[in-house]
Amino acid sequence: MLTPLPSIDRTRQVIDALSDFIESSKLQAGDRLPTERELGAALSVGRSTVREVITHFQALGVMETRKGSGTYLLKPVSKATIHMPLSLDTAHLRDALLQTLEVRRGIECEAGMVAAKKRTSKDIAIIEEKLDEMERVHIAKGTSGPEDLAFHLAVYDATHNPLFKQLLEQIRGTFERFWTHPFDRQDFARRSFPFHRTLFNAIVAQDPEAARAETLKILDVVEEDIKEMSK
After folding, report:
1. pLDDT confidence of 5, banded at 50, 70, 90?
2. Contact in structure between 79 and 19 (CB atoms under 8 Å)
3. Do 143 and 177 touch, CB atoms closer than 8 A?
4. C-alpha 140 chain-centroid distance
5. CA 129 – CA 122 distance, rounded (Å)
6. Which of 207, 230, 202 minimizes the C-alpha distance to 218?
7. Tell me: the pLDDT tens digits for 170-229?
8. What is d(CA 192, CA 197) in angstroms, rounded to the nearest whole number?
């Protein structure tokens, strides 16, 4: 239950109280939060304080307010959760994409290596299922963006370290409107298609160095296309 708070350090206390409420209520991504009026009344704080707290959570990328509908949870929240929002100036798309690629190289190569070490037979079955679907769609349509993402997310899951998936999803999410077809090119990174199968083979073989090498091949194609298509 939400209960009135003492008068000191209102904003920090409301942040903690709302985090506790979300956790104890088992609210999930997509669930709507109580209104500002309801939160203010329950916690005995003004609506301006509630708005400040909502703005804090919006900046972290864990809540969004939809006009005429209310405030919704985008990601799980608790006092023990660490949120690391990302921000880049996208006025110069080419530079921004290349900057994210530098970070992706380090994280994705390590993810591939860890997946090769820690993958289970169940992980292999899931990754192969996603890869088969990616190849089917790619052959049929010449592109496979969502299926490509599903394949990579399965690889991140095989690391059994949730931070890989969260960090890489957040990087991709920062540029979600660009990653579907950057520079309005349907063929963006199409040449990386064969290396997904060889990355899978390296993970199956539990060969971390080969997994790293195949991941680099994929990202090298991405870099080449960013540079070529942004001319």
Report:
1. low
2. yes
3. no
4. 27
5. 11
6. 202
7. 777 666 555 566 777 778 888 999 999 999 999 999 999 999 999 999 999 999 998 998
8. 10
Of 3 and 27, more confident: 27
Site of tokens 């960013």: 226
**Number of helices (H) and strands (E), helices first, in the chain?**
10, 2
pTM above threshold 0.70: no
Angle between helical axes of 162-174 and 145-157 (0-180°, round to 10)? 150
CA distance to 183, 215, 227, per residue, from 108 (Å)? 23, 7, 20
**Cα–Cα dist 214/223, whole Å:** 14
Give phi and psi for 71, each to the nearest 5. Answer: -105, 135
Closest Cα partner for 230 from 100, 98, 105? Answer: 98
Residue type, 145: G
Residue 14 has pLDDT above 70, yes or no: yes
Radius of gyration of the chain (CA): 21
**Amino acid identity, position 13:** Q
Host H or E run for residue 195: helix 193-204
Spatial separation of the C-alpha atoms in residues 54 and 51, rounded to whole Å: 5
pLDDT of residue 178: 57
Question: Residue 158: what are its φ and ψ, rounded to 5°?
Answer: -70, -10
Taken in order 23, 28, 34, 35, the sign of the CA dihedral is: positive
Measured from the Cβ of residue 20, the count of other Cβ atoms closer than 10 Å reads: 14
Name which of 181, 171, 108, 107 is nearest 144 in CA terms. 181
